[in-house]
Amino acid sequence: MSEKRGIQTTDEGQPNEDFVLVQPGLFDYPLKEGEKPFLLAARCSKCNAVFFPARTRCRHCGANDVMEEVRLPGRGVVYASTVVHVDSPSGIKAPYAFGYVDVPAEGVRVFALFTGCDPALIRPGQEVELVIEPIRTSHEQKQVIGYKYKPVRERVSQ
Ligand SMILES: [Zn+2]
Question: Ligand 1 center to residue 60 CA distance, Å?
Answer without folding.
Answer: 5
